[in-house]
Amino acid sequence: MGRQLSFYARARGRGEVAQERAPRKTSFVGTGTAAVAPLPPFDRRRAVVDALLRFGAMSSAGPPLTIGPDAESDQLVRNDGFAFLVAVLFDQGIAYERAWRAPLELKRRLGTLAPTFIVANPAAVQKAVASPPELHRFVKNVSRWLIDAARRVIEDYSGDAERIWSGRPPAEVLRNRLESFLGVGQKKAAMAVEILERQRGAKITHLEGSDIAFDVHVRRVFLRSGLAERDDRAHLVQAARLLHPKRPGALDYPAWWVGHEWCRPTEPRCDSCPIRQVCPQHKGRALNVN
Questions:
Q1: HSE (side-chain half, CA atoms, 13 Å) at 182
Q2: In the Cβ-directed half-sphere of 173, how many Cα atoms lie within 13 Å?
Q3: 53: domain range?
Q4: How far apart are the C-alpha atoms of 216 and 138, rounded to whole Å?
Q5: What number of other Cβ atoms are within 10 A of residue 105's Cβ?
Q6: Which of 82, 91, 73, 69 is nearest to 119 (CA)?
Q7: Shared domain check, 179 and 77
Q8: Are 49 and 76 in a shared domain?
Q9: Which of 85, 135, 158, 183 is within CB 3.0–4.6 Å of 145 for a Cys-Cys bond?
Q10: Which of 199, 230, 229, 233 is nearest to 213 (CA)?
């Protein structure tokens, strides 16, 4: 999680690789237009889950998926733990590109992203976020989150944000650590765990403790495909845990990508969607999830 293009670093990050391949990566659901024979409800949901997982695996094949929307921002959030945390904090209510480029622009404006500098210069941080063009629509909130995050990193992680996810933490433990930061809720924490493990190479264990993010694109796909019956965070998270207990969070990226590219709020592109042959296409659902 609304986010125009976010999670997962979500799109061009994944999209610069995945978007180029997506149109030709749909063979696993077939290329014909024949209707799929109706399946019992649980079997139908299992078929949707399997299709999403295969699509995710195909989209993730090839060169490493980027995180930032361009090479310079990607390098920064990939190599600087605090820059990654800053991007997670920014990833709310603005476009993905804007959120994940923000750490680079903030560093240019401040001259550094050192947590000690940020804690010592709160006025400079707010000015940097607020200066045109504003780095975020919620200047005061994001500035407060940044300063608090820098303080927490200094006090709890010896000034090194990489320690938040070092030491092979279980997914659930890492989610809880991230959610303890001001400005990070379920959506951002679940998102960050998946990005860290899949795209940043963090060693995270017990991935059965991962979750989907309560993100608008994921929500639409879960509702329209029948994976969930109502637009409720606990219900959607529990549905993912039930349907893919080995790693619930593995459903997040493919569901997000399908939601962003095909399962749009209006005029969904069902005819070319990679899960079209197993999705019941409840187009009337989630009309207000945008």
A1: 14
A2: 12
A3: 11-64+209-272
A4: 19
A5: 16
A6: 82
A7: yes
A8: no
A9: 183
A10: 233
In this structure, are residues 6 and 91 in contact, taking their beta carbons and an 8 Å threshold?
Answer: yes
The answer for residues whose C-beta is within 8 angstroms of residue 229's C-beta and 6 or more apart is 223, 235
Pair 84, 73: CB distance under 8 Å: no
Question: Does the pTM exceed 0.85?
Answer: no
Give burial (CB, 10 Å; 0-12/13-18/19+) of 267.
exposed
Nearest in space to 115 (alpha carbons), one of 156, 69, 161: 161
Q: What is the pLDDT of residues 166-207, one digit of tens each?
A: 999 999 999 999 999 999 999 999 999 999 999 999 999 999
| 75 and 198 fall within a common domain | yes
| Residue 27 per-residue DSSP state | G
Residue 286 covered by a domain = no
What integer best gives the mean pLDDT of the chain? Answer: 87
Q: How many CA atoms lie within 13 A of 111 on its CB side?
A: 4
